[in-house]
């Protein structure tokens, strides 16, 4: 068990708070969706109201990506959401950052710059080594405590996630606490248990499928999205050049062999799409597996109606459904049907758990509501749902011995 904010004496304490606000970014380089910021409002408001001196750490995007931008617009939006001034400093652990943190008064809040602007932060380390990185050795001396609220990044073993709790007393924030409470009890959820794996993170999804099938956590795995396309190709279906090229370009070609191995081992418990939707004459057009391959430039952009009927039948008997990743290119109106219909059907299952940044935004866009739990994390939620430990949580649990009295 990790300590929580209930165990932290906040007043007058300078707290480094790691949050996950990794969000869609518009063409203007500004924040395009603030759902992940909203999730952290409770933790940050509580620390501010209890008189903490709050230094916020977070990443945005990955190096080289269009969404690899400064946190300035995140700080602006946080200030509005918290209804409280939030400063921003374009530094993470340099003298300017340390001075900004040291000058905080009780109830002040500053957002430091995107941690991944600093190269060691995009590497994975053992906690003890992460504690020796420039970020942690530079910033930890001006902090009294560390709060990790970044559940969505807790599957990463990066310095801001595992280094600080190795040298500072560490606490779970309110988002982290609630995610661990809900997702930590997956083995106790009602059976049969169905995992629906879609979206575009094929490699992660295959890892999850292996793990939950091997451990007996999943009675069935249903595949959709790019994941479903990879499984279809692994099963010998010719999806055509457009889908194959897409999978190749994304670097997922090797995953086809892994998917084939999984089908060999657990094929009877893995469900594959029975039809797909392509764009023909500017419209959605569904093709059964026997009608494939599609025409040259047509890519499989969604699952079709037969697949939806098949998956809905399987869901009718489920006690728990765990879903990650959209079933199709939901951003395009013609291909939102799979995601809308499947996720709506999932809300009827006794326990329904959803994870994933894009998935959560798809559900908001499509107005699908009624799940037992919508996680702030994708990869992190999936890792927990395979009953695997999260490095950042382990680091919090193993952190330096500390006894700080809670506020009176
Ligand atoms: N058949 C498909 N072809 C191409 N992209 C797809 C397909 N199905 C889903 N996607 C894309 O997958 C992306 C989301 O996947 P992912 O990042 O894995 O989800 P999450 O963030 O919820 O884990 C979306 O941008 C969606 O357009
Ligand atoms: O968005 C995130 O994860 P997710 O896409 O699995 O929800 C986290 O911010 C982790 O980001 P990363 O996958 O670039 O390490």
Work out the helix count. 17
Q: Give the helix proportion (percent range).
A: 25-40%
CATH superfamily annotation of the largest domain: Phosphoglycerate kinase, N-terminal domain
Bound molecules: adenosine-5'-diphosphate, 1,3-bisphosphoglyceric acid
What is the highest CATH level, the class of the largest domain? Alpha Beta
> What's the mean pLDDT score?
95
| Integer tally of domains | 2
Basic shape: elongated
**What structural class do you assign from the helix and strand content?**
alpha/beta
* Rg, nearest Å: 22 Å
Reported by name, the CATH topology of the largest domain is: Rossmann fold
Query: What is the strand content?
Result: 5-15%
Strand order of the largest sheet: 3-4-2-1-5-6
Total E-strand runs: 15
Distance linking N and C termini: 23 Å
Which residue ranges are poorly predicted, with pLDDT under 50 across at least 5 consecutive positions?
Answer: 401-405
The main sheet comes to:
6 strands, parallel
Give the second-level CATH assignment, the architecture of the largest domain.
3-Layer(aba) Sandwich
């Amino acid at each position: 068990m990790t300590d929580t904010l209930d165990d932290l004496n906040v007043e007058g304490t300078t707290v480094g708070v790691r949050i996950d606000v990794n969000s869609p970014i518009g063409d203007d380089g500004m924040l395009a969706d603030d759902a992940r910021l909203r999730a952290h409002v409770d933790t940050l408001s509580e620390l501010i109201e209890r008189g903490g001196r709050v230094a916020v750490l977070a990443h945005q995007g990955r190096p080289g990506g269009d969404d690899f931008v400064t946190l300035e617009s995140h700080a602006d939006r946080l200030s509005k959401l918290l209804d409280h001034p939030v400063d921003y400093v374009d530094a993470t652990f340099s003298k300017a950052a340390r001075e900004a943190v040291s000058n905080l008064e009780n109830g002040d809040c500053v957002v430091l710059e995107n941690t991944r602007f600093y190269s060691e932060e995009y590497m994975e380390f053992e906690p003890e080594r992460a504690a020796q990185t420039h970020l942690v050795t530079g910033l930890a001396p001006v902090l009294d405590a560390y709060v990790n609220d970044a559940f969505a990044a807790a599957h990463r073993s990066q310095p801001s996630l595992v280094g600080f709790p190795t040298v500072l007393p560490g606490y779970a924030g309110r988002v982290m606490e609630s995610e661990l409470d809900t997702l930590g009890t997956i083995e106790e959820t009602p059976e049969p248990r169905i995992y629906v794996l879609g979206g575009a993170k094929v490699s992660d999804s295959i890892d999850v499928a292996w793990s939950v099938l091997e451990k007996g956590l999943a009675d069935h795995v249903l595949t959709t999205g790019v994941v479903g396309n990879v499984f279809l190709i692994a099963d010998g279906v010719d999806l055509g050049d457009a889908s194959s090229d897409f999978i190749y370009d994304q670097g997922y070609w090797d995953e086809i062999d892994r998917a084939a191995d999984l089908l060999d081992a657990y094929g009877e418990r893995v469900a594959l799409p029975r039809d797909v939707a392509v764009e023909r004459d500017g419209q959605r057009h569904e093709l059964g597996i026997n009608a494939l391959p599609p025409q040259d430039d047509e890519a499989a952009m969604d699952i079709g109606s037969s697949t939806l009927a098949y998956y809905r039948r399987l869901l009718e008997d489920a006690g728990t459904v765990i879903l990650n990743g959209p079933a199709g290119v939901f951003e395009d109106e013609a291909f939102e049907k799979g995601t809308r219909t499947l996720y709506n059907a999932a809300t009827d299952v006794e326990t329904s758990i959803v994870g994933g940044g894009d998935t959560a935004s798809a559900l908001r866009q499509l107005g699908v509501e009624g799940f037992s739990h919508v996680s702030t994390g994708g990869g992190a939620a999936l890792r927990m749902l395979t009953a695997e430990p999260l490095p950042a949580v382990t680091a919090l649990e193993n952190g330096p011995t500390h006894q700080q009295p809670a506020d009176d």
